[in-house]
Amino acid sequence: MASVDISAIAKNYGPVRVLKGVDIAIADGEFIVLVGPSGCGKSTLLRMIAGLEEVSEGTISIDGAVVNEVEPKDRDIAMVFQSYALYPQMKVKDNMSFSLRMRGVDKPRIKQEVAAAAGILALDSLLERFPRQLSGGQRQRVAMGRAIVRKPKVFLFDEPLSNLDAKLRVVMRSEIRALHQRLGTTAVYVTHDQLEAMTMADRVVVMHDGRIEQIGRPLELYDRPMNLFVAGFIGSPTMNFIRGIAKSGHVDAESVRLPLPPSLATETGRPVVFGIRPEHLAVVAEGQGIPAKVEVAEPTGAVTYIYAHIGATPVCAAYTGRDLPRPGQMIGLSPEPDRIHLFDAGSEARIDQAR
Amino acid sequence: MRIKRRTLGQIASFTTLALISVVFLAPVIWIALTALKTQREALALPPVWSFTPQWHNFIEAWQSNDFAKSFLITTSVSVFSVALTLALSIPLGYVLARYRRGWLSAFEVAIMVVRMLPEILFMLPLYVIYQKTALFDTQIGIILAFQIFNIPYCAWLIRQFISEVPPELDEAALLDGASLWQVLWFVIVPTIRPGIVAAAVLSFIAVWTNLLLPLALTYSETPMVATTIANFKGYGSFNWPVMAAAAIISLLPQFIFFLFAQKYIVKGLTLGAVKG
Fold this sequence. Notes:
The complex is a heterodimer.
Chain A: E1 4-13, E2 16-26, E3 31-35, H1 42-50, E4 57-62, E5 65-66, E6 77-80, H2 92-102, H3 107-120, H4 136-148, E7 154-158, H5 166-183, E8 186-191, H6 194-200, E9 203-208, E10 211-216, H7 218-223, H8 228-233, E11 240-247, E12 250-253, E13 256-259, E14 271-276, E15 281-284, E16 290-299, E17 304-310, E18 313-319, E19 330-335, E20 341-344
Parallel strand pairs in A: 3-8, 3-9, 6-7, 7-8
Antiparallel strand pairs in A: 1-2, 1-4, 4-5, 9-10, 11-12, 11-14, 12-13, 14-20, 15-19, 16-17, 16-19, 17-18
Helix pairs in contact in A: 2-3, 2-4, 3-4
Chain B: H1 2-35, H2 39-43, H3 56-63, H4 67-98, H5 102-116, H6 120-133, H7 139-163, H8 167-175, H9 180-191, H10 193-209, H11 212-217, H12 225-230, H13 240-270
Helix pairs in contact in B: 1-13, 3-13, 4-7, 4-10, 5-7, 7-10, 8-9, 10-13
């Protein structure tokens, strides 16, 4: 187990700067998820922690020691790859024992460690098989077995669930989480799936365009996104944004008035973005709330997502009623006052600083 | 109707394949038949198809002109030459596959150009160098000379096979504590085994059948099979049947090597077609 300190890290590929000064302090035993859209630099950062990419600027420290110049094999890190990267010519047991063999561990101990890891991951019956004889989920489990067998200081996961089907992904998600709780090893996990990030992380690092947009616990990011990007990235369906001008007690937007609670009061005339999540936008009868025209209703079972327009702005509301509005019908939408988010239209930063 | 069309198609492809086989095999069969004839029958026109097999031609071939000695030397030269080629081509192929840099691409093209140049171009400088360095007419000398032509080809072939191996395998092994050499030996080599066998077979055949290099760089101390067979010609006449018998004997090691490696070569040629 170990802490990982990432300080002012930058990465250049020739003239292209893919990481632009990143700072993260990862505590011992913490499960950190790096999340962001493709090309945001999250995988590059993970590979830099592993030592597979050189650091252009800044320092990476593991347990207080700077490891910028330390070879991957000497960092005591294990990584689970998206493609699993199992050695195709080796049986499962040999895949799992490879790192121990490379480190010259004696045979009886190798056998003992492999058996222990196989027990944890229910791989006992697969040890004599080759990777090509395994299903996707089994391969994933072997990749994790290979990572845990030598008890590294840090686990790195590079989108390990992307190649699995949706159902298996949910199962493996909780398996990885349970494994982390059992072993307590520091883990850095990369994904582009915000749901994966929210469900697995102790803390989530939202990255965008080579920078960190926000670091926080999953519910912190959901409840108090610090800017428009995080607000739009976390949560599904995404948060509704309506542009307008701040007035006393409301926002003027395309001939509709969006009510603001007193806590969000800001200077009159300021261009702002009014944000409200679909689940905090209640569907009410026509004539009440903000008038909206229904486009389509998508029932999912527990909730129905009502896609509508407020003026020309598309919005989505989560509705739990069973009497669904028809396309073209006018309805009212009522935002929960203490769930409204307000952002500056220029800087895109959150406006209410106190709550 | 559909069955009929398929049958016709099969007949057409079998006929084509049979014709191609005849074109390729005819010279070999002709030599094999010649090896079993007397000198008179071998030269007869029109060719004689009914004759008593002269098996002693093979014994005569084996016993004359140092053929047995050249057979053993060629085997030794081929084996060591292939071993050296692989030992150098695998790391070279790895570097070419994994480290994409501008100057490496130029180097890659450069070594292939070496392979494209005619062998004869190298003969004069090599002859002079070999005479001056006592490499002339030695096994080490001829083994080194073969590397000039075999390494570029094999390194390219192996580079191609390594390119098919996901780099994550190398990275996983590096993180598992392996050095680059260990990555190469424990991860890459077993994964591309069919490619390595294909490279070994091709370079073995290249060494075994080469005439020009032994002709220029060896003499009586290091006779090679190809030059020995060529030497079966006398001053006034050719002993065709014995020469043909020697040629057939010289085919055997290649044939055995190929049979042994066949399944790997086929695998090697299809590797990468299916991911997984």
